[in-house]
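Hi F.,

I've been meaning to write this up properly since the lab meeting, where we talked about keeping a consistent format for the predictions we share between groups. The idea is simple: the sequence comes first, exactly as it goes in, then the structure tokens exactly as they come out, then a line or two of notes. No screenshots and no reformatting. I'm using this chain as the first example so we have something concrete to point to.
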Amino acid sequence: MEVLGSRVLVRPVDRDRSLRFYRDALGLAIHREFPGGTVFFLGNGFLELSGRGTGSSAPDVAIWVQVRDLADTEAELTRRGVPVLREPRTEPWGLREMWIADPDGLRIVLVEIPSDHPLRRDTRFDPEP
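Output, unedited:
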């Protein structure tokens, strides 16, 4: 399979409420709009709000979003009235994570990758094992 592009599809219960959340509270930029839908830039991917959901977000599904500075992100979202489900903490795997949710309960994991984490290391310059 050759993947050419991808996006996360979110079916909100109340499209206007979710549009305000992703656009205004999270500050995501709009990539494009079409009748019944809005596509947001989400880092190297996209998030599409379209259709109509049932309101039951699966607890095993989350959106993973990398941010530059988790403390700054927490302060900004708090100012905008976004409730924090779980305060920032360093996980056993070394990433700093904070959890929020969209208006329908879809969890969003905000992640900061510390400068010394292996995900930041350029393996092209690692000595051979």
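Notes:
The CA atoms of residues 108 and 119 lie 20 Å apart.
The longest strand covers residues 37-42.

If this format works for you, I'll send the rest the same way.

G.
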